[in-house]
Amino acid sequence: MANRWIDSPTHRAWLDAEALRLLAFARASRLPQGFGNLDDAGRLPRCALAETLNTARMSHSFALAHIQGVPGCRELVEHGVQALQGPLRDQEHDGWYAQPEGHGDTAKAAYLHAFVALAASSALVAGVTQAQALLDAVVQVIEQRFWCEEQGAWRESFSRDWRQVEAYRGANSNMHGVEAFLALADVTGDTRWLRRALRIVERLILAQAAADGFRVTEHFDAHWQPLPDYNRDNPADGFRPYGTTPGHAFEWARLVLHLEAALQRARLPVPSSLLPAARGLFDGACRHAWQADGAPGLVYTLDWHERPVVRERLHWVHAEASACAAALLQRTGEAQYEGWYRCFWEFIAAHFIDPVHGSWHHELDPSNQPSARIWGGKPDLYHALQALLLPRLPLAPSLACALAM
Q: Please, which domain of life does this record's source organism belong to (predicted)?
């Protein structure tokens, strides 16, 4: 297609400028024990606590910025790595808490450990001294606790002392496990991480989702039997919502394409079903979630009859939709993906970008006005920043290594 935005110097300059604006806003999230959640105006509340999720995501994001040559970011990456090695890590039983010890739940969640691995990988590429020790530590925990070789997937969570295992398996944590494994493969040169990522994709996408019209089943029991009614009474949960989550379909589709490219790059066998799966995931999410209630935007969740359940529009869903459209455009060159890429960025620019207080509104109500039913404030840099970086990069290697090339 002629005149593609992704090829336009003006569009790329706009992406760069928006990324720098987001990074400047996010610097204020620093706390002594890591990084915390900013409010709508970019301030830390008085009661703000460092969180492992935000600390890992911020460390990853600032590492990407440092690799690109943004001054002042290396020190922030070092701070994040130190926090992940210190107050956020269980010094007695190992693994990572959601918050420093003494503040809330001490369970060990796969989702968090995937992001610690991603942060460590990116920090290592950025040249941070302590990153290798953090990487070694999180890989050991993943190997010993979370990776299930028999099932070819991640276990979900454990008690602090690892003695109790949650009788639940989640697609969300495994999806971010794929992301982490792609990064681990690049920084270690060990292709077992690619083979493991493929096993996850084979289970959840090439088997489960493909058999159901490329709808992603999110919740399973310990034996990987689907739980279609999970959280029916709490449908707007931020991490385990009821029904299907179109944003995850976009995210999975993009990761499937990254996996395909990584396998090709490593000269490993590549299933021919990966590209059709990415297409199916993207097409279904666009068809069922875009303007699902008659208004512009992508709804957060759908029921099993493709009807909107939670109609709020979340910023991360649209960031992932845009990044996925860019990946499919790069992979196929087809004009339909350029059309969706422009559509998503037009919507983001019109509704999510906050030119007054900075960053992006994280949530909009069904009328596309800022709201906070699911996510209050502006705590997340990761999704938006990646959406701004991915369009100009190859599908493999993973983000930090691609930026360092």
A: Bacteria
Q: Where are the beta strands (DSSP E) in 83-133?
A: 108-109
Report in angstroms the alpha-carbon separations of 7 from 156, 185, 323, 345, 404. Answer: 40, 29, 15, 15, 20
Residue 248 designated active-site = yes
Distances in whole angstroms, Cα of residue 262 to Cα of each of 1, 51, 114, 123, 324: 26, 31, 18, 20, 16
The single residue of 60, 288, 351, 383 carrying the catalytic annotation is 383
Q: At what angle do helices 315-332 and 335-347 cross, to 10 degrees?
A: 160
Residue in 60, 66, 248, 318 annotated catalytic: 248
For the record, the structure tokens of 48 come out as: 């703000």
Beta strand pairing status for 34-35 and 169-170? unpaired
Tell me whether residue 219 is one of the annotated catalytic residues: no
CA 178, CA 200: separation in Å to the nearest integer?
7
Q: What is the pLDDT along the chain (405 residues), one digit of tens a residue?
A: 568 999 999 999 999 999 999 999 999 999 999 999 999 999 999 999 999 999 999 999 999 999 999 999 999 999 999 999 999 999 999 999 999 987 877 899 999 999 999 999 999 999 999 999 999 999 999 999 999 999 999 999 999 999 999 999 999 999 999 999 999 999 999 999 999 999 999 999 999 999 999 999 999 999 999 999 999 999 999 999 999 999 999 999 999 999 999 999 999 999 999 999 999 999 999 999 999 999 999 999 999 999 999 999 999 999 999 999 999 999 999 999 999 999 999 999 999 999 999 999 999 999 999 999 998 999 999 999 999 999 999 999 999 999 999
In contact, 374 and 238? CB cutoff 8 Å = yes
Separation between Cα atoms, residue 145 and residue 142, nearest integer Å: 5
In sequence order, the 6+-apart residues with CB closer than 8 A to the CB of 67 are 122, 125, 126, 400, 403, 404
Decide if 41 contacts 66 (C-beta within 8 A): no
Structural domains in the chain plus CATH codes = 5-404 (1.50.10.10)
